[in-house]
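Fig. S4 source data, part A: sequence.
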Amino acid sequence: MKILQICNKSPYPVKEGGPIAMNALTESLLQLGHQVKILAVNTPKYHVDKENVDTGYLQRTQIEWVDIDTNFSVKGALACLLKNQSYHVKRFYSKTFEKKLIEILRQQFDIVILETVYMAVYYDIIRKNSSAKIVLRSHNVEHKIWQRVGENTKNPVKRCYIHILARQLKNFEQKMAQKCNAVWTISQYDRQFFASFAPVEVLPFATNLPAKVEGLKEKKNLFMLGSMDWQPNIEGTLWFVYEIFPLICTQFPNIQLKIAGRKIPHQWYNIKHPNIEIVGEVPSAKQFMQENGALVVPLLSGSGIRIKIVEALSLGKTVITTTIGKEGLDVCSGKHLFIADNAKQFAQAVKTYFEDEALCGQMSANAVEYIQENHSYSVINKRLEQLLANL
């Protein structure tokens, strides 16, 4: 089949969750022998220079980019508010992208995959210029993220505005899901939102199962890893640093916390705490995971699947996260990872991590087995073949 994959950010380089998930689908399609063409938005936050992209990737994916300024605009936000339109979605529309899309659609595709609901802003253009089946690949139930952010926002005016944005985004998600030929969610949990009004299937993302890197010795510490320009990551990190970590330090005075990731706010480097190290962006996320101890993912909002948790589990790492953090994964606390929703529970999980090596060793084996059975390319590719056949 000829398949066009339309992405809200570049799938390459694979430095954060969205690109990792999009690139995994691209790899699955190529492994199954399909012809793939990628058209991606080149955003200011995740900007890609074509000159730095591997030539092999360029040839395999025929990828093209269109620059769109997706930065927040007061004027744009107010206009959408007055028109009762989703500003989250509107940011991804541009005449230049539309023109390039129409040009590419002349190549006659069998399937067009919209990566995230944001790219559904081009649904009408695709339908007008192509007879291809259109699939909405939902990485998250996007409005849920903003609902939760709003619930955790103290400023009443800001909270009200965020809830308006969430409602507008929800309406758009429902409308687009009903129009598309199929919706593919990354988790069973997200499928529940679409199931009552749209043809929806679950297609988890695939990951390689790497061997342990030779010569690396894990430190007994805590670490956080993620894109720190994503609001749920910012919110969760600050909650952990200021409300949870001090309690942990009373039990373990010498414990170390490393915070790594892209786009760490400049002011975080001013955090003066002898037990906290702000690392910044790291060359290899997987190597950083292997070198350090337990991954902490203290999310209070979000949706979909946390890619970094899947990657950590595939490495047999100890993971401590919240109920929201583990959403979308059929895992159990004490069997695959630890679930903690308050400071006391986090402190207890850290205590178990340090003191019960036998339990953590068994959890490590269970985690790797879970990923092999649910997120390996062999498993996901079979599922993908079935979904393509259904279309």
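Fig. S4 source data, part B ends here. The domain at 222-375 is CATH 3.40.50.2000 (Rossmann fold).
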